[in-house]
Amino acid sequence: MSAPSIDVRLVKAGATKIRYPAELLGDDGTHLAVRAPWAAPGGRDFGFVRFEPGDVFTEHYWRNRWYSVKEVRTGAGTLKGWYCDITRPAVLAEGGGEVSVEDLDLDLWVSADGHEILRLDEDEFEESGLAVRDPEAAAEAVSALDELERRAREGRFTELLTL
Q1: CA 67 → CA 87, 108, 161, distances in Å?
Q2: How many domains does the structure of the chain reveal?
Q3: Where in this chain does the record put each DUF402 domain (predicted)?
Q4: N or C: which terminal CB in the chain sees fewer CB atoms within 10 Å?
Q5: Which CATH number does the domain housing residue 53 bear?
C-alpha cells in the first residue's frame, strides 16, 4: 500500500516558485513530513553541495515554526546534509492536498557530519525589504535562523525531525 500523495508549494514574493508532488510520511497536526525526489530540472551546484536528479528529500514542515528542514540523500541513501529554508509557518490546504510555505530568503546548510554549518542568502534577505514591510516577520525569520544554527552547533539539530 502506497503512502498518500500531497503537493508541496513554495511561494516567494507572492508567486509560486516551485510545486511538486510528494509522499506524505506523517502529520501530527503541527509537524508534517513528506518525501520527494529532487524536483528541479537538472542539477544545481551550490558550491558546498550539489543537488541532482535521483536525490531524495525528506522534508519537515511545521504549522507553528518559521522554517522547514529538508534532509537530503543520494538515490543510494547516502546522507548529504540538511537544507533549511526560513519560511512563514506551513499552511495545509483545506482537504489536505497541498502544503504551502512562503520562502523568506534566509537559509541554513548543515553538512552530513555536522561540521559545516552555513548561513545563506542573508544579502537576499536584506534586499527583500521584509524588515521594512513586515518587521515582525523579519524578526521571526532571523530568530528562526539563529535557532536552527544554535541547534546544529549544539548537536541537537536532528531532534527536530522526529514525528
Answers
A1: 5, 10, 12
A2: 1
A3: 48-156
A4: N
A5: 2.40.380.10
